[in-house]
C-alpha cells in the first residue's frame, strides 16, 4: 500500500498532523504498536492520568486508617482508568472515522527510506509513504543498578499509576520532577514516601530559595529525602540498599518507583535503513524544521531528544505543517518562552530565566518576590505555602522569567508567558485589571517594584 503520508506513533504531534493532512485530501497511514496508547503518552500514561490521581489525592485523608486509605486509592485508580479509556477512545474514533486515514496496529521499522515494515497480527506488511513522520515518544530509563530490572515490586511511572493495591510504603529512586510529583501524589493518599537521590543538591537547576521552598512543602506532607545517597543494589522485598552519610541503610517498602528520566523510543525503528542519523543519546537528529537526515522524513516530540512535554509535540506539528502548507515561516528557532508546570500539592510553574541563569549570562536584573500568604485567594483556598518570584531586566523593563510556587500556578504562568512573547514591559502586568479574588491578581503586587 502507498500513502501520501505515513506517521509512526499516535502521539500528540502525529495525531494532529494526521487530522490536518486528511482534511486536505491526503491519504494517511497511522501506525501505533500499542492499542492502549492511542493519543500518546500524555493521555494514557503521563500528564492526564497523573493529574487525575493528584486531583483525587487532594481530597484524600492521609491520616485515615488503612481501610480508608485503600478505599480512596482504589476509587482514584478506577477513575483514572475510566478517564484514560474515554480519552483514548475519543482519540481513536476521531481519526478512524476519517476516510483518508488508515490506522495500523503494529510495530513499525524502516525497510528503506520510503518503505515501512509493519509487524501486525503475526505477519509483516510493507507500506510506502511519500512523506514519513516519526512520533514515537520516549520510554522510562532504567539505570544500571543491580537488581533494579529483575526484582519484583519495581515500577516505572506508568506502571505505578496502574497499581491495584495501595502502597503503604513507597520508595522513589530519583529526585527529579517526575519523582516529586509521585512523592506528592502518594503522600497525599497517605503513603510513607522516601525519595533517594544520588546528587547532593536538590533540584540543582532551580534557584536555591525555590528549591528550598519545594522541599519544605514536601517534607511538611511527610516526604523524606535521602540526598547524596549511593544505591548499592535492589533486592526482593522490594528492598533498596544504599549508602548515605557514610552509613549503609536497607529500606524495604511495598513498591519502588524508578523515576530516573526517559529516553527516546528509537530502538525498534531501524533508522539506519533509511539513512536517519541518531544523536549520541539515541534521539532522532533533526534540524530547525524537524527534518531528519533523510530528505522525506521528519520527527516530532520526545523522540527528537528535546523538551518532553505534550505541548512541544503539538507545537512540533505546527512546525512541520508550516512547511507542508507552503509558508515555512515557523521553525524550532521561532519557539520562545516555553513554560512548564510540576503538579505538586502546591504546584510549581516556571517560564524563562531564573537567577542562576541570569547571573551566568551577565544580565543586570531586578528580582521581585511575593509570599503566597499575602494573596487573598490563597487564603480562600487554604493554600498559603510558597512564593512568587520574577526577574526583570534592569535596563529594558522586560520580564526575563518567573517562578510561581502557588495554587493555580499552572494557569497564571501562561499570562506571564504571553506578556513575554509580546515583549511587554513588566508594568503591563503591574497595572492590568484582574478579577478578584483570583491568584492571577497577585501579578499586580508581584510586579510592583
Describe the structure.
A hairpin with a 2-residue loop joins strand 13 (239-244) and strand 14 (247-252). This protein is globular. The protein is 31% helix and 26% strand. The longest helix is centred in the N-terminal third of the chain and has 31 residues, at 66-96. The relative contact order is 0.12. The protein is built from 13 helices and 22 strands. Helix 3 (47-58) runs parallel beside helix 6 (177-189). It is α/β, with parallel strands linked by helices and 449 residues long. Strands 1, 2, 3, 4, 5, 6 and 17 form a 7-stranded mixed sheet that branches. It has a 5-stranded parallel sheet with strand order 8-15-9-10-11. Strands 18-19-22-21-20 form a 5-stranded antiparallel sheet, with helices on both faces. The protein starts with a strand and ends with a helix.
Strand portion: 25-35%
Poorly predicted segments: none
Structural class: alpha/beta
**Fraction of residues in H or I helices:** 25-40%
Radius of gyration: 23 Å
Shape: globular
Q: In total, how many beta strands?
A: 22
Terminal-residue CA separation: 64 Å
The averaged pLDDT comes out at: 96
What does the largest sheet look like? 7 strands, mixed
Number of helices: 13
Amino acid at each position: 500500500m502507498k500513502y501520501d503520508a505515513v506517521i509512526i506513533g499516535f502521539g500528540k504531534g502525529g495525531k494532529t498532523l494526521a487530522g490536518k493532512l486528511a482534511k486536505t485530501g491526503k491519504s494517511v497511514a497511522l501506525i501505533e504498536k500499542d492499542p492502549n496508547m492511542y493519543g500518546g503518552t500524555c493521555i494514557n500514561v503521563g500528564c492526564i492520568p497523573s493529574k487525575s490521581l493528584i486531583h483525587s489525592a487532594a481530597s484524600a485523608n492521609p491520616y485515615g486508617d488503612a481501610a480508608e486509605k485503600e478505599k480512596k486509592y482504589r476509587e482514584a485508580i478506577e477513575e483514572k482508568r475510566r478517564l484514560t479509556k474515554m480519552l483514548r477512545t475519543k482519540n481513536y474514533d476521531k481519526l478512524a472515522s476519517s476516510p483518508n486515514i488508515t490506522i495500523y496496529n503494529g510495530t513499525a521499522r524502516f525497510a528503506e527510506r520510503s518503505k515501512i515494515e509493519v509487524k501486525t497480527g503475526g505477519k509483516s506488511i510493507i507500506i510506502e509513504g511519500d512523506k514519513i513522520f516519526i512520533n514515537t515518544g520516549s520510554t522510562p530509563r532504567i539505570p544500571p543498578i543491580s537488581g533494579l530490572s529483575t526484582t519484583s515490586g519495581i515500577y516505572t511511572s506508568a506502571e505505578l499509576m496502574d497499581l491495584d493495591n495501595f502502597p503503604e510504603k513507597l520508595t522513589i529512586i530519583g529526585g527529579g520532577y517526575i519523582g516529586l510529583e509521585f512523592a506528592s501524589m502518594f503522600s497525599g493518599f497517605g503513603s510513607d514516601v522516601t525519595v533517594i537521590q544520588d546528587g547532593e543538591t536538590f533540584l540543582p537547576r532551580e534557584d536555591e530559595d525555590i528549591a528550598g521552598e519545594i522541599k519544605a512543602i514536601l517534607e511538611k506532607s511527610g516526604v523524606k529525602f535521602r540526598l547524596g545517597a549511593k544505591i548499592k543494589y535492589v533486592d526482593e522485598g522490594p528492598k533498596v540498599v544504599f549508602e548515605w552519610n557514610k552509613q549503609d541503610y536497607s529500606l524495604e517498602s511495598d513498591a519502588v518507583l524508578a523515576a530516573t528520566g526517559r529516553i527516546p523510543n528509537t530502538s525498534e525503528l531501524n533508522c539506519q535503513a533509511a539513512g536517519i542519523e541518531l544523536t549520541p543519546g539515541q534521539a532522532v537528529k533533526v534540524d530547525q524544521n524537524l527534518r531528519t537526515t533523510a530528505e522525506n522524513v521528519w520527527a516530532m516530540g520526545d523522540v527528537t531528544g528535546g523538551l518532553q512535554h505534550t505541548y512541544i509535540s503539538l507545537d512540533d506539528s505546527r512546525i512541520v505543517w508550516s512547511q507542508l502548507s507552503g509558508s515555512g515561516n515557523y521553525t524550532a528557532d521561532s519557539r520562545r518562552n516555553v513554560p512548564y508546570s510540576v503538579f505538586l500539592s502546591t504546584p510549581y510553574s516556571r517560564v524563562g530565566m531564573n537567577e542562576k541563569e541570569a547571573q551566568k549570562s551577565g544580565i543586570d536584573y531586578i528580582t521581585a518576590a511575593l509570599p503566597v500568604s499575602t494573596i487573598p485567594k490563597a487564603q480562600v483556598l487554604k493554600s498559603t505555602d510558597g512564593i512568587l518570584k520574577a526577574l526583570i531586566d534592569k535596563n529594558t523593563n522586560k520580564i526575563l522569567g518567573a517562578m510561581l510556587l502557588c495554587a493555580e500556578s499552572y494557569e497564571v504562568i501562561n499570562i506571564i508567558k504571553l506578556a513575554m512573547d509580546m515583549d511587554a514591559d513588566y508594568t503591563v502586568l503591574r497595572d492590568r485589571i484582574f478579577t478578584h479574588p483570583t491568584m492571577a491578581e497577585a501579578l499586580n503586587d508581584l510586579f510592583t517594584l
